[in-house]
Structures are given as structure tokens and as C-alpha cells.
Amino acid sequence: MLGRRSFLRGVGVTLALPLLECMSPVFGRAPQVSVPRRMLLISNNLGVLPKLFFPTAKGSDYELSPYLKELSEYRKDFTVVSGLSHPGVVGGHSTENCFLTAARGPTKSGFRNQISLDQFVAEKVGQVTRFASLNLGVNIDKANRSLSWTRDGVLLPAEDSALAIFRKMFLQGNPQEVASQLHRLEERGSILDTLLLQAKSFSRSLGQDDKERMEQYFTSIREVEERLNTAREWELQSKPWTTESEPPDVKDKKRFFEKFELLLAMSRLAFESDSTRIVTLMVDAFATPVFDLHQNQSTTDGYHNLSHHGQAAEKVKQLEDADYQQMGLLRRLFSELAAKEEQGQRLLDHTMVLYGSNMGDANTHDNSNLPILLAGGGFKHGQHLVFPRDANAPLSNLFVSMLQRFGLESESFGSSTGRLIGLETV
Amino acid sequence: MKTSPIFQSECAGRQSGWSSRWCVSLVEWCLLGFCAVQSVALQVSAKDAAPGVFKQLTPLLENHCTECHERDNAKGGLDLTKLPQDLQERSLRERWIRIHDRMEKGEMPPKKEDMPEADRADMLRVLSGAILKVDREEVATRGRGPLRRLNRDEYQNNLRDLLQMPHLDIRDVLPEDREGHHFNKATETLDMSRVQLKAYLDAADMALRAAMVTQKEPPKVAQYRAVGTRLFPSLDTFGTRAAMFFARDGEAVNIDGKTPKEELAKLDADEGLELALFRSASWPYYGYPKGFVAKVAGEYRVRFSARAVRQLAGFKIVPAEKPQPMTFRARKPSGPDVSGDVRATGGLIDILPESGVYETTVLLRGGETFEYSLLGLPVPLTFNINGGAPTYRYPTFPEGGQPGVAFQWLEVEGPLAPAVWPPLSHKVLFDEVQPGSVPADVKMESKRLLRRFAALAVRESIPAEELQMFEALVLGRLEKGDVFSEALLAGYKAVLCSGHFLYVREPERAEDHFAVASRLSHFLTNTRPDEKLSGLAQAGALRRKAVLRSEAERLIAGEGFDRFIRNFTAYWLNLRHVRRDDPDIRLYPEYRFDDYLVESMEMETRAFVTAMIRENLPAKVLVDADFIYANDRLAQHYKLPALSGSTVRKVPVPKESPFGGLLTQASVLKVTTNGTTTSPVVRGAWVMERLIGQPPPTPPPSVPAVEPDIRGAKTIRDVLEQHTKNKSCAACHARFDPVGLALENFDILGSWRTQYRGLEEGQKVSGIDRAGHDFAYTLSAPVDASGKLLDGTAFSNIHDLKAVLASNPRQLGRNILEQFTIYATGTPVRFSDRPEIETILDACAADGFRVADLLFGLIQSRIFLGNPGCE
Fold first, then answer.
1. Over the stretch B847-871, which tens digit does the pLDDT of each residue have?
2. Does the beta-carbon distance from A365 to B702 stay under 8 Å?
3. How many CB pairs under 8 A join A and B?
4. Which of A43, A62, A46, A42 has its CA nearest to residue A54?
């Protein structure tokens, strides 16, 4: 196979955002949207130090908090919200899988998760892009954690390798590979037809509980089949080109910031190339052991232990450092999204970037007053929205506002009671 | 009674002391302040099948419970006025079970005097009777649990066995499975999604392609031989010469970049040279024979001549005094960096001091080579300080010289041809149809082969109607123009992704012997039933007690049992996380890159758990035993008399040794720390949950965790004082903190210590570590492993704690049964299983709850066999 780099150098074409119009006719089902809307949903499952994150004053003339000062250039491009949480989503770390689902009672017996925001959107607009959505994770425990959940409440595993995502998006197979892939997809269609028939027969002999369990299997068959059609169409289209070179394949969990940065870069590339419009990114701080804070300086403890700082100065200092660096990564992302033009606007104006956490304060396992920041995406930003600390508004209200801005006619999501008051669109 | 906490001694006098202590603290936490008794109407559900039960219970609840569990005063989130009195609905039943259990343990009501014993007994009797009835009915009508999806290890094992490809490697194509109840075997978390199904389709495709051959002849076997300087890819390795050199007659030969070409060429084939190696394989390292690469994936036979040596000053080598263990590592022959994955292969080989020929088989992927991996030796690490030139220092030689290995020659042969051609895997797919050929009557032959494959693949008979569906698929593919083999493989893929293959069922019907066979084999060998077991299922013999037992014994004695041991310990004891946190080399320089120690720790635990079952050891070995399994490295780690060789073997431990039993095994002590510090909280909670079977409740919200201070200023004990001072903490922490405290004498890798280490305060210790780096840490406060249990029993060290934990073998036995139950059936012990669990325990009590006896008891019970039970 051609080396990726030589292939790219040989072509040397800068990627332009593909014209979406020429894709649209292929998919009759896709809603016609004039401006492509995108979302990047990020959660760090240990959150941030709340005191340094939340501003004290509310409204548009608020003074930036220490962390938000890192983003001061983009002050007008984001809204910071305090007093949000998911009602009934308590239980310390077990809430991490509910950040985008709002499913109540993750520690209760018989708990089942619900559909996540990204999958809800992907169900509706996923077919307009090569990938319905991308589900990424920094240092993520793929088996047990994800921001992305199906309608049946089944975990969708995250991808943690920037290199793998890059190749998925840009590595074009040669004609034989494309042909054999098409054949494979066609064959897969026949196999799935058979499996569906066979499963019906198989199910007949089963008991009630088994049948309920088999529902997941049926759903899976149908969903793989539905996606085959889209996959076939996309296989016929060449993959987009990029002048950017392959990212390194960083495996070491200690290189936490590097991995985070690479996955943010992949998210940006995914949007620029319109490979997908929906990206989730779980920063699995919980699964991050002792990590490199700076060159030649690592933390004294794993991220989780640091988060239970008990106000010990040494730990707080390291957490602060880590939080500031993550803010720095966000600033860089914003600047790149702002630098890219799309239909006369900045890519940032079409891209909602949500940064938050299921932890209001990881030190005390608190799941209320979550740190929430929303940037870009076509909202009137530049404000600190405040909801009562002791009677939080549902975070799902923000999700509803985002869904509507995305162009979906959704009145509710999760535990929403409406849109988020005070957040207006441009 | 059956759920009594371990610290609650079976002797009655102690019990009351324990309980009241516990109760006092609970009052603080859950039930601040008592209000006047109020009569509250409890919510009665219309659905309730046994209204009589709640009629009996309501007055008792109102008298003893609702004052703290109603409306605004609903302590612990339990509002009895809102909790529907319904036992049918599962989640509600679970809540009532919790109420039952806390009352049974005496935790509720928190003050003993708040509920007369007679009332408590009444309530427990009524409630448990009602729950039992409802739960039993549900199990009778709906089964004990639903069907379970195979996890990825099982799927791979099933394919390996079906396709007769013991090295088939498709596991990583499948997403890692979610854990449930700590195992990768829990029905409720083994979900199916489009991602999962697609992965199964990909994995099946990959496996079938690997099983099929297209060539008429086996691939050509390549031969390779290296001597002299070809034994290593370069003339030196990273670090100083002490790490590696070439020697003749026991003395280093001077070769370097300036050596003339002609001379180098001669040395390339010089049979008189030895490669002398004195380092372990780790980054950076080029350590493979020069010029060998596997062209195709497969097994390669490696033969080599070597001897264990010692290096003396002046680069001299003399015979070693003990064997040196080694293995090989498969890797790509890329630069000094080890890119991609590196896997140990070929098994452990102990190189003896006398020169000898060794032979092993390594498993390589296409494009890979293999490197020498000497175990437990120093690891040179090149590093740059402030961008300067790389520096490296070989550590000081131990007394008697630096151990290493000298290699004389090495040969590789491979890929090894299968015993027959086409290989067995091909025959599974195509029977007698030769590679590349097409049968005369394609349709007929396809139908025949498909039926044959389906019968082999599926662990029971498939209805004719479904076979026809698979057949139609193959015929359809042929009509669409697929070639014979492709069309057939499409049908096979469907079989391998069908419900029959992907799921294991609860054995519900009396005649359902296949489900019993499948459950037994997936339990004890993590794979499909073998021929013998399938035959017994076919004969309908698997509900006979004696047959079940003899089959279990056969599987336990067999090779496949290793799959059980690996998977069970990976999850139950978290062995799969044994490498999760690297030791903090500032504090523990002696553990730098000591992968051999970690590997030995894994071997020890696997050997121990194997013995627990194969040798039918009593349950108390979970916490105490008078022997351990150790090899050369572990003997050193545990400060026991020296052993030689890498094989772990049973060795007695002196009475005064703290080792012996799972509780104090290095692996267990390692997975419960973070690599830097030990936390009695984490260790204690883990031990209570995994070994004792009494998991602490989840921490209440809004309580900051306390973590140790590593600067050496404070001991963990100081920090933990909060847990005892603050009664709301003490309520729970008193259950497990003491257990962790008693383990404080074990460092992050389980070695015995009497003083903590720090970086600032205390007596300074410095030197050069095994990688040649300077180190400096301090010995700070002495370790105090004493404490007090909930019942007031004081202990001064690990010996005392072991005695306490071992004094309730029934709870240890119960825990083993509970772990086996979830692992074997995918469903945790249900309320209606409890009497059966106790019956099994009763039967095993006289012998001290021997582990295999417990296992046999379980597989002969309804919990395992489904409603029909044994014949």
C-alpha cells in the first residue's frame, strides 16, 4: 500500500470544505440545511476546580474567572453557565456515563442508560456525512465508559487513537480495495437479511426475558443494515484530502495533554473535512495514572487521587496546572475554528463546542453545579448565565437549546423542562 | 445468620458488642435526631400480589421505621410512605431486599432497643417469606436469568476450538466487554449494539479467512542460522559495554566501528564468539538476531545454545551459580524504539550455567522478528539531561558478578507446517474439497458443507427451518456470482453471528442438556463444550449428579482449565490491572522496570487459585495459608530462603512469615495501590469486597476523600484519624479501614516494610538503581499496622488480622460461592438462591468449606442447572 505521507505529498492539495450540496442529492432523507451545524461535546470526568472556573458576577459584564481568562480573546464567543446539573443523576463517578444522556439513578439497581445527545442528533442527520458521529476518548476505559449511548442504553465504545481516526477519515483505499469493500458491504447485506429472518425463528422458542434481551440483537441487525446503505454511497465517494500529516500514535497514558490535543485536532479536522458533524470526547481523567504535567515533570499522583485533594496545597497546585493547560487546549481549538472560513462565517460560528463535566466538585463527589461552557455554534455569547446553586436548572435544557439551534425540531431531551432561559441564538 | 459481617464473630457475646458500636455511629450518620412516633399511611400498591404481607408489615414499619424514613425526614433517601408495597416489580423488590438485609444485619433500626427482638424476627420472617415466594415464582416462570452474549474472550476461544486454530487472534477486533459485578460475564452488561454486531461480523470474517488456505502446498519453511556477531543486530547496545559485548574464551573481544570490514565479515561467521548479554529488554534496545524477519505469520521453531554466566570486572565472563530465566519477545525490527506491540512468546526458559541447547516455538506475525528478553536484569536507560549527550551508568555489580547469558548460536525454522495439508482448519470449512478446487456439483456440495459446518459450530441442534435460511443465503450468493468458497463463507459468517453461536442460554427445560454443557464448559474452560461433554449432552446425561461432578473434575484437571484461571483471576482479583500503575521510581527505585517481578506475581496468584480448586483447599486460604507459590524472584521479594529458577512452586513459609494466603500476595497488594502510596481505605475496601464478600456501601455524596500525604510529614494513620473522629465517616470506614491498616506493612508491590518512604523528611537513603540512575529517598515514620475492629477487638499486626478473618470460614466460603455464581451463570445470587447457597455451605462446613467442594455443590444446584435441577 502507498505510504500515507508520500501519498499526501504527491497530491499536495489543501483541503477545502467539501461542497455539501453535491452530497445532498445522494441522500433523500437528509434534511436540507443551508448552514451546516456541528457539535463537539467534551466532558472531563473529574471536572475542574470550581472556584477557579466559575465567575462571581453574572450577566455580560462579568469579570472572567482565572480559568476563563485563558479564553479572554474569545470572551464574546462563549457562554459560561453555573447552576446546572442533571436531576436525579447522582452517585459520584457513576454519573460519568450520563453526562449526555441525563438518565436518572445510575447507581440504582436495574439502571439502564438512555440515548445520548450525540446519538439523538446522529439518528436524524448522521447520514449527511461519512461518519454519523465520532466518539472519542482521552485515556478512556473503552469497556466501561463512554459519552455515547444507543437508544437501548448500550455503550458505544470510544476511539482513543488519533492515528486510527485520521486514517479512517483520510486514508483512501486503492480501486481494488474500494471494489472489495463494496463487495463486502453487499455481501454483508445478504448476511444481515438472513440473520434477521433466522433471529425471528430463534426468538420464538425463547422465554419472555430472553426475548427482551434479543431485542438488542434485532435493533443491532437493523441498524447495521441501515448504515450499510450510507456506507455504500460513501465508499463510492473519494475521501477528502488533507495537507496535514498523520498524527503520531501516542499510547502512553502519561502523555495526557498530548493525547487530548491530538483528539481535539482530529475533531477539528473531522469538521473541516465534513467527515462528521457530531463528535463526543470524554476526557477520562479517572483512568489517567500519574501523568506528565510538563516536560520532565510528572504529577505526584494519578489524576483521580489528585482530584480528591482534600485542599492539600500540593495537590491543588497540580490540578490547577492541569486545568489551566486544558483551558489552553480549548483556546487553541477556538482559535483554529475561528480561523477557518465557511460560507462567509467562521467555522466556530457553525460549531457548538460544549465543555463540561459530570462532576461539580470531584473532591467531594458532588454532581451538582456542573462546570459548563458553551462556545460558538450560533448563539449570542459573552455572558455568565446563573441558575440557583441550591435549585439547579436541568442541563438538558441547554441540550434542547442546542438541538434547536442544530435545526432539529426537538421540544425536549432527557430531563429538560424547556430551552435554557437566557441563551439566545444569533 | 447468613449475611453476618465477618467481624461479627459467631460467638454471641461478641456479636452484641459489635452491633451496638455500629449502631451508635449509624445514628449519627443516617438518623440525626429522633422525632415523636407518627403514624403514617404507607403506600399500598394495587399490583401487590400479597397484600396480606404488607398488612402484617405495616404496623411494624410504622412503629419502628417510618419515624426516620418518611417524607421530609427520609433518611438515606428511603421514604417508606412513597416506596410502593410491591414485590413483583423487580427494582422495587430489590429495594425491599435491601431493607430486609440491613435489618437482618442489625444495622436497622440503628438502636437495638428501638425494635424488640421478637418484632425484628417477625418482620424478617414475614418479609423474607414474601420476597422468597415472589422471587421463586419469577424464577419458575421466567427463568433465573436471560440468555447471555459471549464476551470477546469466549468468542475467540469458541472460534479457536471450532476452527482448530489454537493461535487464532481476533479478540482485539471486538470491543472490550463492559464489566458487571466485576466480571466480564454478567448478563446485564453484555449488551448488543450495532458496533458489537459489526465487530462480530468482522471477527467471523477474519477468522474464516485465516482458517481457509488457498495454496495447494504449505508455505515454504525458511531456515536461518546466526553465529558470531550476527547474533545481535549491532556491535553494542545502549548503555555501557557492561550491558552487552562479544566474548571469546570468556573475555570481551575488541570490535567497534573502526574494525576493518574484512575482519568484521569474519566475525560474522565466527563460531568461537559468544554474545554476552547482561540487560533486560526494554526501551531503548535492539536485541534481535541480525537479519531475521518472518515473511509470513506462523509458528517458528527456535533452537539456540547458551549458558548462564556472571560478568566480572574487566568484561570477563565465568559460569553463573544459578540459572538465568529468559524468554523471547515478538516485535517489528524497527529502530531502538519499540513501536507497536511487543509480546512475550516462547515461554520461560531457565538457562543453566553449563552450555546447552534449548528449543522453543515462537509465534510471529508477518514482518516480525523476536528479541532476547532476559528477565530480572538491569535495564539500561539512555536519557538526556537538558538536551545534553545521552548518559548512562551501569549499576554496580552484585557480589559475585553480574548475572547474564552467553549465546553461542541460534537457529530459526519456520513457519512450521501443519501436521497435515490442507490444515485441519481448512477441513473444518471444506471437508475434502482441496484448496483452490471447486466440487462438481457446487450447489449440492455447498448445502452439504453448510449443514456440516453448522452442526460443528452450533453447540446444539439447529431447527431445520433455520438451516434452510443459511442454505438459502449460500445459494443466493452463488446465484449472485460469488465463487464457491466465498458463497460458503458468507453462510458460515451468518452461522457464527447467529443467536445460536453468540448467546448462551439458561438451562430451562429438563431435556435441555446442551445448555448445561455449554454453561459448564464456559464456566470451567471459557469455551464451548468439547466432544466428550457434547456427547453427554446428546445422551441426556448432564443432569446426573455423578456425571456433572466427574465432568467438572475432568475439565478442572485438563489443559483448558488455564483459561478459567486466567479469566477468573483477571477479573475477580483484578490481575488484568497488575501493570496499571508503574511503581513510583523516586520512592521505589528497586522496582524500576522490574517486569519479571510483576510477571512472577501473576504466576503466583494463578498457581495459587489453581491449587485452591485442583487441590480442594479450604476457604480460609483466601486469607491465610502456611505455604506460598514462589520462584527465584518472589523468594527474594518475600525475603524467603533463595530459590532457583523461574517456575513457581509450592513452598512452605515459616510461621512468623506474614505471607501465605491470597490476602498478602504481591499481586493483590499491587492492584490495590497506585504505585506511589498505599491507601488503607482502598485496600481495606477491596479486600472486604473481593475476598470477604462484604462490599462497603457506596460513599455518601459530599464527603471528600482523604488521601495520604507523601512528603513524609504525616503518616496515613494521622490522615485517617478523621475517619474515626468523624462518626459519620466511621460508620462505614470502621468496616474496612482497619483491614487496610493491618496491611500497611506491605509496600506498593507487597514487599514487607517497617518504615514509610518519603522524599523530604527522615533518614536519607541514596544510591544507584538497577537502571544506573541515582536515587535518593527518605525513610520516614515507622509503620504501625495496629488497629481496632468494629467489635472492639484490637489487633497489632497482619497475623492478628488473618486470625480474625479466618475465624469465619463460612463467610469466606459464601463469598467464593457468590463469585462462582455470577461468573458461571451471569446472574448474581438472587434472593431465592440464598437458601440453596446456605445448603451448599452446610454440606461443606465439616471440611472447612473446601473450594472444589463448593464448586461441585454449585454446579449440582438449581442455581446452575436451572429449574429442573438434578435428576
1. 999 999 999 999 999 999 999 888 8
2. yes
3. 179
4. A62
pLDDT digits (tens, 9 = 90+) for B21-74: 222 232 222 322 233 333 334 444 444 455 688 888 888 888 888 888 887 777
Cα–Cα distance, A260 to B205 (Å, whole number): 34
B698 and A224 in contact by Cβ < 8 A? no
The x, y and z cell numbers of residue A44, run together, are 472531563
CA-to-CA separations, B40 to B50, B69, B792, in angstroms, rounded: 20, 10, 38
ipTM: 0.87
Longest dimension (CA), chain A: 67
Span B564-618, pLDDT tens digits: 999 999 999 999 999 988 888 889 999 988 989 999 999 999 999 999 999 999 9
DSSP letter for B690, please.
I
One-character DSSP codes across B548-582 = HHHHHHHHHHSTTHHHHHHHHHHHHS-GGGTTSS-
Q: What is the pLDDT of residues B84-123, one digit of tens each?
A: 888 998 889 998 998 899 888 877 887 777 788 888 899 8
The continuous run of DSSP H or E covering B777 comes out as strand B774-782
Length of chain A: 426
Q: What is the pLDDT of residue B257?
A: 78
Angstrom CA distances, B531 to A297, B161, B162, B555, B560, stand at 58, 11, 11, 12, 13
Contact B711 A213 (CB under 8 A): no
Q: In terms of Cα–Cα distance, which of B31, B44, B53, B108 is closest to B81?
A: B44
Q: What's the rounded Cα separation, in Å, for the pair B188 and A212?
A: 12
Cβ atoms of A287 and A145 closer than 8 Å = yes
The helix/strand count (H/E) of chain B reads as: 27, 22
**pTM, rounded to two decimals:** 0.88
- What Cα–Cα distance (Å) separates residue B729 from each residue in A294, B699, B735, B744, B791? 36, 9, 10, 20, 17
Across the interface, of B192, B482, B707, the residue whose CB is closest to A220 is B192
Mean pLDDT in residue range A175-183: 92
Q: What is the pLDDT of residue B701?
A: 55
CB B501 within 8 A of CB B158: yes
Q: B222-258 pLDDT, tens per residue?
A: 999 999 999 999 898 877 889 999 999 999 999 887 8
Residues of B in contact with A208 (CB under 8 A): 142
* Contact by Cβ (8 Å): A300, A67: no
Cβ-Cβ contacts under 8 Å for B192 (sequence gap 6 or more): A154, A216, A217, A219, A220, B149, B502
Pairwise CB contact (< 8 Å): A207 & B465:
no
Q: What is the least distance, in Å, from the CA of B570 to any CA of chain A? A: 15
Least CB–CB distance from B94: residue in A107, A109, A309: A109
CB B497 to CB A195 under 8 A? yes
| Contact in structure between B319 and B308 (CB atoms under 8 Å) | yes
Note whether A29 and A341 are within 8 A (CB): no
**C-alpha to C-alpha distances, B565 to B576, B608, B610, nearest whole angstrom:** 12, 10, 7
> What is the spatial distance between Cα A150 and Cα A142, in angstroms, rounded to a whole number?
15
The answer to whether the CB of A262 falls within 8 A of the CB of A250 is yes
Contact at CB, A310 and B580, closer than 8 angstroms: no
Pairing of strands B298-312, B402-414: antiparallel
User: Is A107 an 8 Å CB contact of chain B?
Assistant: yes
Cβ pair A210:B146 closer than 8 A: yes
Cell 516485535 locates to B331
Residue A252 contacts B, CB cutoff 8 Å? no
Amino acid at B623: V
A209-223, B80-94, B479-493, B679-693: the lowest-pLDDT one: B80-94
Phi then psi dihedrals of residue B445, to 5 deg: -65, -40
